[in-house]
Specification:
Blueprint lengths: L1 E4 L1 H5 L8 H12 L5 E7 L11 H6 L9 E6 L2 H8 L6 E7 L2 H8 L3 H17 L3 E7 L12 H13 L4 E6 L6 H14 L4 E8 L4 H10 L4 E4 L16 E2 L2 H10 L8 H14 L2
Parallel strand pairs: 1-2, 1-8, 2-3, 3-4, 4-5, 5-6, 6-7
Antiparallel strand pairs: 7-9
Helix pairs in contact: 2-11, 4-6, 7-8, 8-9
Length: about 280
Amino acid sequence: MKIIECPRDAMQGIREFIPTEQKIAYVNQLLKVGFDTIDFGSFVSPRAIPQMSDTAEVLANLELEGAHSKLLAIIANVRGAEDAARHQQIDYLGFPLSVSETFQQRNTNKSISEAMQQLARIQDICHSHSKTLVTYISMGFGNPYNDPWDAETVIRLVEELDKLQVKIISLSDTIGVSDPENISYLFGNLVPAFQGIEFGAHLHTTPATWQEKVEAAYQAGCRRFDGALRGYGGCPMAKDELVGNMPTENLIAYFENIGLNLNLNKAAFASAMTQSGAVFS
């Protein structure tokens, strides 16, 4: 079981700039917990995501000696991939590929077809710099734009990614519209059909629906889950103030309740929970 903690996703939409020193201290605390991966920052235009403009500085000040967590940075184009790939400390480059043409344009200023072409070049960059590409299929369970969506479209997109030898794909419920039925259908069909791909779940949720979503994904074979402490962050297009990231503490409680040993440092996690309140206040 892999838990990916996503402070980048929790922070990026906050308008007031979180001081760089505070970000460094927070990510350093998260590194002590023992998460499989920390999605810590992004190499994108500071005009697009001002909150992440200090990602390189944060990275330079992380206490990585003795830490077991791998680092993931989000990129949106070839230039961002080149910038991120120069940093030896980064293990994963994450690219958002949408099922929705509208969201792909809004998110990366590209069509889906153009994004696929960029993705092929980014995969080459990853190979040449010993990085692993993580592709997020955003709007993977529906979209608010009335763009066409069905599960078969998602499966066809996975087939195209498989041709590019993408090894990690995270299905992203960008606006919190997934339900146990479509979660079970997608993971239940994709996991056995593409055994060379590791599938993850990046699920946004309301407080009332988190457990049914996690349970459906887990029972359908998903073993990689993204979360953010206290469920901070979310998508502004959700149009529901209750929709946020999957709370990491809920993921931990669920998996421990069914008997899984996540090998996390509980004292470090408790300190991170306390620290998160100050970071996101």
